[in-house]
Amino acid sequence: MLGSIAEGRTEISGFLDGEDCLATAAAMRAMGVVIEQGSSTQMAIEGSGLHGLMAPAGELDLGNSGTAMRLMAGLAAGQAFDTVLTGDASLSGRPMGRIITPLTRMGAVIESECDGTPPLQIRGGMKLRGMHYDMPMASAQVKSAVLLVGLYADGETSVSEPAVTRDHTERMLRTMGVPVTVTDAGAIALRGGSKLTGCRIEVPGDLSSATFIILGTLLSQAADILIKNVGVNPTRTGAIGILQGMGADIRLENPRLFGDEPVADLRVRASRLKGGPVDSKLVSLAIDEFPALFVAAAAARGRTTFQGLAELRVKESDRIAAMTDGLRRLGIDVEETPDGAI
């Protein structure tokens, strides 16, 4: 998305050739952006500039990607043309009021189903104004949507979050030349009209995906593996901290940067895990890894308590209910709570 509204060419290596990413690329192509995929992991984008996107011929189908839907809403609200965002049955049941509220306060006009779910009909050509928004929930998707529409708004837009969430958007904006700052009060801020410049991007290996390999290694008899080039952005490493707190032998080797993103090789060895209360401060830093962490808890000695996970109820599925049901079927003693499990 950022490469599409940048000036010049953006070249990406380490691209994930998955359905969410491909749906996003298709949506940008539908708005006139030239995107070439040289291989399964290489992509080049000829940026159209901040105001260079064109009206699509039809609805933009974002498949199952909640990230694409919420970020695209922020981007679409700043365009001169109307946009309709749709998705599959699962995405069409996910809550979008969390982005509709702040974007509407900034002057956007967005229509949804009566319960705030997609499809989203976004009116173009609206006069947008910057504002400060205190997010009621910790969500990098909401934060990113507000920052994206802030690029098209008059004045400064800033966001405060109740807990630290992944900051890939802020890092990428800075890499492309947008002055993203942090205020004295801790809010993330930018000014409308900032120009983005295309660049080379090397995408680190995904920690969420690596977590399953890490888990398999920890629960093995004697495995000792090295997973190379994994992103270890501090807003994403909660799963490592939680597992280490359970006794996991995980070490970061060869730390370095891919652009502005921290990367390391992960040395993982088989370990005996022990249960205990999971630090709630790590929840927002591990929000996508909890299915694997539930399995780790099931294999650990003793009692493990998860709380503060209410956000998992409104993912692609209710992940708390799905995991507790699956673990019970395997004979695990598990108690489901409103915001977690024991």
Q: What does the model show?
A:
With 342 residues, this protein is an alpha+beta fold. Helices cover 27% and strands 22% of the residues. The chain contains nine helices and 17 strands. It has helices at 19-30, 66-77, 97-105, 140-150, 168-175, 207-218, 238-245, 290-299, 319-329; strands at 9-13, 34-39, 42-46, 60-61, 83-86, 110-111, 120-122, 132-134, 156-160, 181-182, 188-191, 200-202, 224-231, 249-258, 261-269, 336-337, 340-341. A four-stranded mixed beta sheet has the order 2-3-1-12, with helices on one face. Helix 2 packs parallel to helix 4 and helix 8 (290-299) packs parallel to helix 9. It starts with 8 loop residues before the first strand and ends with a strand. 40% of the residues are buried.
SSE pattern: EHEEEHEHEEEHEHEEEHEHEEHHEE
Mind describing the biggest β-sheet?
4 strands, mixed
Name the poorly predicted regions.
none
What is the CA-CA span between the terminal residues? Answer: 39 Å
Work out the radius of gyration.
21 Å
Give the averaged pLDDT, no decimals: 96
**Strand content range:** 15-25%
Please count the beta strands (DSSP E, at least 2 residues each): 17
Which strand order does the major sheet show? Answer: 2-3-1-12
Number of helices: 9
- Form type: globular
Structural class, please?
alpha+beta
Helix content: 25-40%
Question: Key terms for this structure?
Answer:
alpha+beta, 342 residues, 17 strands, four-stranded mixed beta sheet
